[in-house]
Design goal:
It is a multi-pass membrane protein. The protein has a single domain, classed as Helix Hairpins, CATH 1.10.287. The chain has three helices and no strands.
């Protein structure tokens, strides 16, 4: 069972690479649009990918020091997206 930690490390590195590629595609969507809501969804996905990347990095290094950072960023991201959604909804009600 000595190969199992190395295999798990390899899987985590592959996860980080795939998250990076996905983040590049999301940045393209963020820049191209076509609407503000598309950009908002892309920004939410980018924040979620950043959080998942931090968790995968914490699992790879074996540290739990990033957990408060992940919680704080997720709360800020949630509050930001709900605030923008509320303003967009107000604009469509008129």
């Amino acid at each position: 069972m000595t190969g199992l930690p190395a295999l798990l490390d390899g899987i985590l590195v592959v996860c980080l690479v795939l998250l990076g590629l996905s983040a590049l595609l999301v940045v393209v969507r963020l820049l191209r649009g076509p609407s503000g809501l598309d950009r908002l969804v892309a920004l939410d996905v980018l924040v979620a990918e950043f959080l998942v990347g931090l968790v995968v990095y914490a699992a790879l290094t074996g540290t739990s020091a990033l957990v408060p950072v992940v919680v704080a960023i997720s709360l800020v991201g949630f509050l930001g997206s709900t605030t923008v959604a509320r303003f967009v909804r107000r604009g469509t009600d008129r």
